[in-house]
Automatic annotation (TrEMBL):
Catalyzes the first committed step in the biosynthesis of complex N-glycans. It controls conversion of high mannose to complex N-glycans; the final hydrolytic step in the N-glycan maturation pathway. Gene3D superfamilies: Glycoside hydrolase 38, N terminal domain, Glycoside hydrolase family 38, central domain, Golgi alpha-mannosidase II, Golgi alpha-mannosidase II, domain 4. Binds 1 zinc ion per subunit. Its EC number is 3.2.1.-. This is Alpha-mannosidase. It comes from the Eukaryota.
Length: 1113
């Protein structure tokens, strides 16, 4: 096989060499116009030949590599790139695309001249004879965009509109085979399905199967792409696709995403791995649309920057005009297109803003109206490379009025009949679905061997930050309603942890015949899947809904947080009990250490009453072994902590304060390190002591700018301290950090491996505004520093953790440094409790200024927690345009150093000056920004933030710092810190009846106790069976192999990177009865293997893989 590949490659090389030689030889001839023209033609032909050779090589390699086929969802890894983590990251990537968004931003002037009828474009002309030799194909695609919460709640929208829309559409399509429609939001469809009669359901299924009614995308919602994490994006897509599979029996093949406020390549990649063929997007910066339209590049193959080949390419269509409503979809002139929205006829309840109403189509006017519409279609076609035109026909919640389908379909049918009856017009027009459009497009253009349309460009990069007009950049929603962005991540981590724990425990429950566990807990999981999925909607996690809608989302989220805690505690009980029959006892119970009273309350740590020995159980939802510091609140200070073998664990006890003057005398914090295996459970016991030296060591507290008594609590050293020039210093084996002795703010940080101190000045500032709203960030100038003069703060130091607790205007700032040898000791942990309820029209930020020399103010932000994207701060666009989403992390770097800021929740980030980070913390806004919400943002809450500041020194040569490369990768330590921040160890208290000896010392379903460092278990999700809330015995195991940068070292990780292959069964203590490859959301199954067969997996960096596994206990 190797010899065949070598011979073929040699042949390719020789052909390319001699062809190039001929062109160069020709170029050496006399410099005449004819010679130049001929040379240009030869170069074009050469490029075509090279492309054909590449396609042939790909096809040949496909044939030579066993087990590979052309299925969209599979990663073929056909390009010769070192697939080890180090080699992959060091191979230059992101340069093969024809359109590189990072470069496009350098080219576009962002000048926004008036384009006439198409305000943001130009006056499109159609040359005479343009359609003499080809027929214009027009697909009019009726649709209705249904937001699962925005101005109304999800349930209210369903009752008032969505329920009627689906019923009206079904009634108008049945018996009319030429009428078509597309539907996207499965959350609404599932409600309608529950209410529909059996005949309505059958009609719906019949329409889907005959191609009249197409389900596009098929997600639970049309998710946001700026603030979402890829886990939640995948989960809501699985929920939608599973519902469609179980109820309709089809597999969506194209994606429709018209309303999210900007787009990331992460979503394009996920769609590709789900098995999608093509996708459509709409909300792209108007200047970017114009640039692409001028070059006829509004359709392209979207390629991942990290892809060294073509394996991730997916066909993408960008809608060209301002909006997805009917006035902006038939062509460039909205005043004309509005006249073909027949719901705007008298009595329809809406009208045309251009004051030219539609006319009912009749024999009298059909010619004039048809030619007017055809002119718009022809003009629109000039923006694309093919003669196939897509003309969406819909808007938000359209077709709810039972007369609208009649008005739209009947009037358009008259127009179609006229146009199609005139062959001299060279037009074929019909109703269509999105798949109809893409199928016709590919038939017209022809297809390459990989299925892509011939001659279409490749694009790499993202479409952030979105602007719809002028300098109105939609960067405010990256931070709006941060309390609920935080609650979203809390549910996300609890939900993921519960899914995995349930999948493991249910196999044990089946083996032990404990039926009560599987049924009861799975109901809660399904509800949580749907509540989490609902909030990923582009008016949910974005913070852009009405106040009462936000409350509805919040209630769903907090209910599911509690339910997921119950699932985790129930699984812990089952897995940790030595005698499983005791599971049915209600006396033996585990309670999570945190609870929430309501949707808008902060979490409260439960108090562990220490009167006798109490058991504390820990659950690590990550697949890597962890050693970290944990915190438990206890009723007395004199305690000790024992491991499962009865050995003392080093521990620290801290005071808890009622106010500035008074510590609590019945509540204390105990800190101790805990080691937990991957996906594992472990336990300790906490006992009361007599105050002897074998107990936890009390911390010392220094109080600044406030006088307190030194003997407040017996055994604790509490003293007053003075402002001064010397720093307060925190230190562990990895980090030294300096803090201002007068303000308590961070000043410097050093990695002890080099000893080089770096400036890291942390400050709080605020932007003033009179125009910002939930969507838009429109500051009135640069940020002003929040004045901090002699603030009250505490410095707490102990054997396991140092911290500063500072009280600033609108922020309680708590910065911690752990002193263990675990991953939590590699970074400074910054906890902010933000409260801006006493302000108005303020946008609060945290800024960190360093002496890192990031050239051209370039830095990197993550896209959906999945990949990193290079950003470049530009002076030609306004401040708000240089803000980007930061769902998980951002880093600055120079040739020697990288500083990463990790976050537990999504927020906006910018690097406006060299060496600077700033993140937006909260926004309180008194006005609407005229994007439909109709209100400001004044429902602010006390909002918790958790950041981790990681400093890493470059230890090996690195290529990805080069400015031309649009991508970089976190280090393995960076990945681990991010996971630690986002997936903290779960802590549970056993009731007083729980006896330590009744529990196992520890439990893990993993053979070695850990996955490789670069292999992340995204989820292990029990597959749903027929009917809601019925589990099967299959588990969807989703794996992600990280791309990572080897230049920064691995200390103090407790794992090793993946080799070239891994045997799946060797990872698990659980038996494997059956194993099946499948697409990301399980729509397309692949190879299947029995439990007795070897299951060797080759996992490529950056790729996601889903397997259906039947585990046994």
């Amino acid at each position: 096989m190797k010899r065949r590949i070598l011979l073929f490659s040699a042949g390719v090389f020789l052909v390319m060499f001699f062809t190039m030689h001929m062109v160069v030889d020709q170029m050496a001839q006399p410099d005449t116009d004819n010679t130049i023209d001929e040379t240009k033609k030869k170069l074009v032909k050469l490029n075509e030949e090279i492309d054909q050779l590449k396609s042939s090589l790909t096809k040949t390699q496909n044939a030579l590599v066993p087990g590979l086929d052309n299925t969209n969802y599979k990663s073929k890894a056909l390009v010769s790139v070192d697939s080890t983590g180090c080699g992959f990251a060091q191979s230059e990537a992101g340069l093969s695309a024809d359109i590189r968004m990072l470069d496009i931003y350098k080219i576009i002037p962002f000048d926004n001249p008036d384009g006439g009828a198409w305000k943001q474009g130009w006056d499109i002309s159609v040359p005479s004879g343009a359609f003499d030799n080809e027929i214009l194909q027009v697909f009019v695609v009726p649709h209705s965009h249904n937001d699962p919460g925005w101005i109304k709640t999800f349930q209210r929208y369903y009752m008032d509109q969505s329920k009627h829309i689906i019923s009206n559409v079904v009634a108008n399509l049945i018996g009319n085979p030429n009428r078509k429609f597309i539907w996207a939001e499965i959350s609404f469809l599932s409600l309608w399905w529950n209410d529909a009669s059996s005949s309505q359901r059958e009609s719906f299924k019949r329409l889907v199967k005959n191609g009249q009614l197409e389900i596009v995308t098929g997600g639970w919602v049309m998710n946001d792409e700026a603030n979402t994490n890829y886990y939640a994006m995948i989960d809501q897509m699985i929920e939608g696709h599973e519902w469609v599979r179980l109820n309709i029996g089809i597999k969506p093949r194209v994606s429709w995403s018209i309303d999210p406020f900007g787009y990331t390549p992460t979503m394009a990649y996920l769609l590709k791995r789900m098995g999608m063929d093509a996708m459509l997007i709409q909300r792209v910066h108007y200047s970017v649309k114009k640039y692409l339209a001028q070059k006829k590049q509004l359709e392209f193959m979207w390629r991942q920057n990290w892809d060294h080949g073509t394996d991730t390419d997916i066909l993408c269509h960008v809608m060209p005009f301002y909006s997805y409503d009917i006035p902006h979809t038939c062509g460039p002139d909205p005043a004309v297109c509005c006249q073909f929205d027949f719901q705007r006829l008298p009595g329809g309840g809406i009208w045309c803003p251009w004051n030219i109403p539609p006319q009912p189509i009749s024999p009298r006017n059909v010619q004039q109206r048809a030619m007017m519409l055809l002119e718009q279609y022809r003009k629109k076609s000039r923006l694309y490379r093919s003669n196939v035109v897509l003309a969406p026909l819909g808007d938000d919640f359209r077709y709810a009025d039972p007369q609208e389908p009649v008005r739209q379909f009947t009037n358009y049918e008259k127009l179609f009949q006229y146009l199609n009856s005139k062959p001299e017009l060279k037009v074929k027009i019909q109703f269509g679905t999105l798949s109809d459009y893409f199928n016709a497009l590919l038939k017209t253009t022809g297809k390459n061997d990989d299925g892509s349309p011939k001659g279409y460009p490749k694009l790499g990069g993202d479409f952030m930050t979105y602007a719809d007009r002028d300098e109105h950049y939609w960067s405010g929603y990256y931070t709006s309603r941060p309390f609920y962005k935080n609650l979203d991540r809390v549910l996300e981590t609890k939900h993921r942890a519960a899914e995995i724990a349930y999948s493991i425990a249910s196999r044990i429950a089946n083996q032990e015949k404990i039926a009560k566990f599987a049924t009861n807990q799975f109901n809660l999981l399904v509800k949580s899947r749907r509540n989490l999925g609902l909030f990923q909607h582009h008016d949910g996690i974005t913070g852009t809904a009405k106040d009462h809608v936000v409350v509805d989302y919040g209630n769903r989220l907090v209910q599911s947080v509690g339910n997921m805690q119950n699932v985790i505690a129930s699984a812990a009980k089952l897995l940790m009990l030595k005698h499983k029959e005791s599971y049915s006892s209600d006396e033996i119970r585990f309670d999570m250490d945190e609870s929430r009273a309501s949707h808008d309350s902060l979490p409260e740590k439960r108090l562990l009453s220490i009167s006798n020995t109490r058991v504390v159980v820990f659950y690590n939802s990550l697949a890597q072994k962890r050693k970290e510091l944990v915190s438990v609140h206890v009723s007395v200070p004199n305690v000790k902590v024992l491991d499962a073998d009865g050995n003392s664990i080093k521990c620290q006890v801290n005071l808890q304060w009622k106010n500035k003057n008074s510590p609590r005398d019945n509540k204390f914090e105990v800190l101790f390190p805990i080691e937990v295996l991957g996906l594992g459970f472990s336990r300790v016991t906490i006992q009361k002591t007599d105050g002897s030296s074998d107990g936890c060591k009390p911390s010392k507290t220094s109080i600044y700018h406030h006088k307190v008594k030194n003997d407040l609590v017996k055994g604790f050293d509490v003293r007053n301290a003075d402002c001064g020039k010397q720093y307060i210093t925190m230190e562990n084996q990895f980090i030294v950090a300096d803090f201002d002795r007068c303000t308590g703010l961070l000043q410097n940080i050093a990695d002890k491996s080099t000893g080089i101190k770096r400036t890291a000045e942390l400050r709080f500032l605020q932007y003033m505004t009179v125009s910002s709203g939930a969507y838009l960030f429109l500051p009135s100038g640069t940020a002003k520093e929040v004045l901090i003069q002699k603030p009250f703060f505490r410095h707490i130091s102990g054997i396991l953790r140092d911290e500063i607790q500072a009280f600033y205007p609108n922020v309680y700032h708590n910065i911690k440094l752990a002193n263990t040898n675990g991953i939590d000791s590699r970074s400074l942990h910054i906890h902010n409790l933000v409260d801006i309820r006493d302000t108005s029209n303020r946008e609060l930020i945290m800024r960190i200024s360093t002496n890192i020399r990031n050239t051209n103010r370039e830095y990197f932000t993550d896209l959906n927690g999945f990949q990193m994207q290079r950003r470049r701060t530009l002076d030609k666009i306004p401040l708000q345009a240089n803000y980007y989403p930061m769902p998980s992390m951002a880093f600055l770097q120079d040739p020697k150093l990288r500083m990463t800021l990790h976050t537990m929740q999504a927020c906006g980030v910018a690097s406006l000056k060299q060496g600077e980070f700033e993140v937006m913390l909260d926004r309180r806004l008194g006005q609407d920004d005229n994007r439909g919400l109709g209100q400001g943002v004044r429902d602010n809450k006390q909002t918790p933030y958790h950041f981790a500041l990681l400093l890493e020194n470059l230890t090996k040569k690195q290529t990805m710092v080069k400015s031309k490369i649009p991508i970089a990768y976190p280090s393995l330590v960076g990945h681990a810190v991010s996971q630690t921040v986002n997936h903290p160890i779960n802590i549970m208290f056993g009731t007083s009846e729980v006896i330590p000896d009744s529990l196992l010392k520890q439990y893990s379903p993993l053979k070695s106790g850990s996955f490789p460092c670069d292999l992340h278990l995204v989820t292990a999700r029990t597959v749903q069976g027929e009917g809601d809330s019925k589990p099967t015995d299959e588990t969807a195991v989703v794996l992600h192999r990280y791309g990572y940068d080897c230049g920064y070292g691995m200390t103090p990780l407790l794992c090793f990177p993946l080799g070239s292959k891994i045997e799946f069964k060797s990872l698990w203590n659980l038996g494997v009865r059956n194993f099946k490859e499948t697409s990301l959301t399980m729509m397309h199954d692949g190879n299947e293997r029995g439990g007795e067969e070897s299951i060797d997996l080759t996992l490529q960096p950056m790729e996601l893989y889903t397997y259906k596994v039947k585990f046994s206990g």
